[in-house]
Batch of 2 targets.
Target 1
Amino acid sequence: MASFRQPVMQQALRQHKQYLLTGVSYVIPMIACGGILIASAIALLTFLHPEAMTSTGGPDFSAAPTLKVILDIGVAAFTLALPVLAGYIAYAMAGRPGLVPGLIGGYLAGTTKAGFLGALLAGLLAGHVVSLLKKMPVHKFVRPILPIIIIPIVSSLVVGIVMLKVLGVPIAEFMTFLGGWLTTMSQGNALVLAAILGAMIAFDMGGPVNKAAFFFGAAMIKEGNYAVMGACAAAICTPPLGLALATLTGKRLWTEEQRESGLAALGMGMVGITEGAIPFAAADPLRVIPSIMAGSIVAAVVAMMGGVGDHAPHGGPIVLPVVDHRWMYVAAILAGSAVTALVINVLKTTTDEKPAADAAGAAS
């Protein structure tokens, strides 16, 4: 019996990985578009209006309305990324009837601050719910409206209730807990705090855990403690930069599409957009998330050891003009990125059945 269950479980895992890959293939252009537009707007603002990167607030676009338009379009693309990810995961599982609950679940993952992990769960939940509803025996007169009306409404209600009532409240309470816990930790060992912040920043790449760490660092700026934000700033850009480095140094381990995503991640990492790592994490969370967490921990700890201070609530090389001990900041980012690239490439080398590029060639 055990020998029978194992192949079944392996088949189910392979199927679910394919569902995730389908969602990723649709969301990559959305994240690349949004990330590059946001990155371009911030980079140009910093170049044209250096004073806009203030020490108490984020980038101020009031003096650059054209760049603000570019930023808003990029933010819109990023806002749509979670619904697209969840929607097309559900689509891969259940066909077109899965799109509506998947898109709604992904949207609610954004409004409830559940982030990309919430969108993954929403997409999988929507796909399973729709798959069950499609097997429901109904009268022949009802069957024509089943995929058009009944399935979208019922599945959307199920997914929506789960996202709003099951995930939403715990996430809000968890955010409050994290804020209080980080405040307590700030009174102890600075290196331990840096390691915790680095791990949190990378864990969900813009989700609630990431935001708890980021907002804590931003709050410390107002208290005159720039070192906490310095550690966060180094950790923020390490996931996309590390994965970009991994695709450049281990090309045979990555598909052509992943290498292209690596180039987009490189641009996003340079301006401190952690979400550039999401396409990689969504496709392979069990290996990517630990790898980027390791890199961000190293980056944050090195930054804290080097006395790096960031006067602006942002990260990445783009904030160099407002950073104390700039060379240590650069060293922290390079060290963290190198660790991420090394760990993920080693994991892929030792656990892949065959290199990704070879597998793609064999399939063609």
Target 2
Amino acid sequence: MFHRNHVTKAYVALGSNLGDRAGNLLLAVRGMMEAAMCVCRVSSSYETEPVSEVEQPPFLNMVAEIGNPLPAPEQMMARLLRVEFLLGRIRDVKDGPRTIDLDLLMYGDHESNTEFLMLPHPRLHLRRFVLEPLVEIAPHLTHPTFQCTCEELLERVDDKSVVKRWVP
């Protein structure tokens, strides 16, 4: 029997603006792999200005594509939170600086609206720092709620923050 999960992919946004930002992103990718997630592709790293009222250093951001076998969406979110915890993420200031931030952006066409998991990510379509790296690896990915591609979302985004490919 063909299972529809056969071609499902999930997308995770990674961000860091404390300590060794590039090292933190690499450790997060490794952490996802150690948590039995199949990391298929990762975007380039992008240096981005913080979208926050809190004064803080610039971020490095990227997006990872996760393939089969995929854990259930809630299980995947729990594993991402564990990777954040193991890399020293402390949630003390909302939208404050952080060693690592992992956001589950999309999980196939799955939609969820619980306190624990919102899918697709509720602010994905508003954030240039997420859309630029996502479009790099999955331009034709369709947003399940808006029924348009990520490339189209990027073309219409109002966010004018600076997002530039990072070269170490």
